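Give me structure tokens for this 296-residue protein.
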Amino acid sequence: MNALALPDIPSGASNLDLPLNWVGMCGIAQPIWFEGQRISTRVDAGVSLDDGGARGIHMSRLYLALEEFEREELSVELLRRVLARFLDSHQGLSSRASLKLQGEALLQRPALVSPLAGWKAYPFEVRARQDRWGFHVELQLQVTYSSTCPCSAALARQLIQQRFAEDFSGLSLEQERVLEWLGNSDGIVATPHSQRSTATISLRLVSGGTLALQRLADLAEATLGTAVQTAVRRADEQAFALANRRNLMFCEDAARRLGNALRQQDGLEGFRLRVVHAESLHAHDAVAEYAWRYPA
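Here you go.
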């Protein structure tokens, strides 16, 4: 029995002559090595289809090119090579290639005071593309922190002042009595509201830049001053309350802090950021965005 040639339907010409911006695959399960960790990611990979009469691309060639991520640490140079393989395998069909990796990096974080430590997940994306304008790489990272409302803090202080004036009207201000009052929950009649908040930072790296995820996480958390914690004891919780009081901020404050800190960093063509304060007072979020030298 003679072997039959398998039909190749996509190789036939289309009767609709229209080039396509992007054709590929989304949500490919792909392990990668990133900053010393083996991370499970989902990858979108594709190329342009410049030949308006062609009916398909070689998706299996894109899929097989992703195997390089299993063999070495994720880097700007590795991304460049993978995109080059995309285009080399589609000569005459494509002039643009792109990919996006999405995953979560685990970083161990120490407690504020005690010797405890725990792991935090940091969602990230890496996007790369090769086109007629050159090679471009972006790193996006999401950082979670606590934000205490300055307005709420001022209103709480006012109520405490009023209660203090009422309770000590006509009385001598003896230190022991004042300390007892301050430690009494009936005296501190109001507390400010705070919320878990997120900062999403997208960096456009210069040619030859590095994908320094942990360094970016460290910078963001140090700048904001109120990173959410993992394992804690009471001393850590007290230190966290103190950090929130020292870092009262609206979403505008958080965005400006991060924006000023990022503008001082080397190796960036530009960046954009978005901070979201998931309001505990309102049924909606407070959001601020900032972009610096970032293409539309």
